[in-house]
Please model this.
Amino acid sequence: MTVGVIRGMAMSLEEGSSQGKPGAKPRSNVQADAQSGVGANTQWGGRFAGGPSAIMQEINASIGFDRALWRQDIRGSLAHAAMLARTGIIEAADEQAIRGGLERIAGEIAAGRFTFDAALEDIHMNIEARLSERIGDAGRRLHTARSRNDQVATDFRLWVRDAIDGLDAQAAALMLSLSRRALEHAADTMPGFTHLQTAQPVTFGHHLLAYVEMLARDRGRLADARRRLNECPLGAAALAGTSFPIDRRMTAAALGFDRPCANSLDAVSDRDFALEYLSALAILAMHLSRLAEEIVTWCSSPFGFIRLSDAFTTGSSIMPQKRNPDAAELTRAKTGRITGALVALLTVMKGLPLAYAKDMQEDKEPVFQATESASLSLAAIDGMVRDLAADTARMQALAGSGFSTATDLADWLVRVLKLPFRTAHHVTGRLVGRAAANATDLAGLDLAEMQAEEPRITADVFSVLTVAASVASRTSEGGTAPNNVGRAARAWIAQLDAAVADQRSSENSA
Ligand code: ARG
Model:
């Protein structure tokens, strides 16, 4: 799934909702006490004489955002109707009429010709009412052996499953971009930091590949969530199941689920699939935010490690020299929304008795918005990773500053002079003190000065004090030696090239 598709999945969040509109009027029950003017609900209003107040309608309606579920709702209804016909619960002719009607409604929605009605509350009743309007009683038979409770749980699982597939593809694409840049910079050195203090030299490629590992685990978490999500609530009906002879295995299989949910109460009342998804997104967003923070730091002029092009920077309205990394800053900031979505849904769910409660209608916006933010962030980081130009000379120069090869000196004292490491650490510390006093680096000390601290030191020590020697020596598994980094980058590229090509071909055939 492309970025455009996933970003379009929650396309209509703003339409149909007055919330957040600038200048929205404060609401008053003086007007709202009067009924909204609509009659009783056409879908469930049998025992109602009057319609809801305007405030009731406004707080109740979810069509402003859940219209994003329309594709999933139609898919679920097609599967349900086919099952009802196959089991003899409805006539084959009714199923045919339902199928034709739903396909035409899908066409209307896709073309923007469908009129959504807030009086019909949500996407489920909007589509069902339109179907009955078009095909009459056959349409009114669709909701046999079904409730909006199992319907919405099914639609929402399908939506989250599609979203996982889209974000997974984007994460794979970002991993590939990072791996390619890592291969390009497998031997280019930069300072490695702890506490944001220069620690030991590393290669830029190694640093980029650290994020590839994080993203691989993010994809693993999404895949785990998808596996547990993939059970079908349809057929749980309102909460207790149904007396009709339905075939839940048939609908589950038709919708690509592994099996039906085992317990009807659980099927309609849990949203842990959405919470797991949001948890995975919150961790993913945290990773993207850390990389975004590094991009911001690297392109600040005191660092000057990288430069972003015009495509991923903005100017200042007052300071003509400015080139601001807004996309990285906004990616960093969007983490707040995504984490917020997780906390919002956890809070909605935590006090609800079984089974369904209307509170659960509040599950969708956090998920839609977090998906949108994660998708946009992945795309922005991918763009910046492909776009950035590394100032390798600057990085290399700074890689050697801050006595970054002090550990290499201590290791030499251990390896060659057989000093215990703790003793070598002390000797090196004193040499660092001397170098600092002379305003030079370790390689700038002369041999006599070294020997004043430890008489057995020989000129051979200077061979380990360069940045290049330092990184080349880190050949331990997972270490920063350029050979290791090149090998790891090539392995990721081979794996991801195949995966991304697979995704493209399945997208094209879909
Ligand atoms: N719009 C509702 C939701 O999103 C659909 C389920 C309504 N069920 C009910 N019993 N009122 O949760």
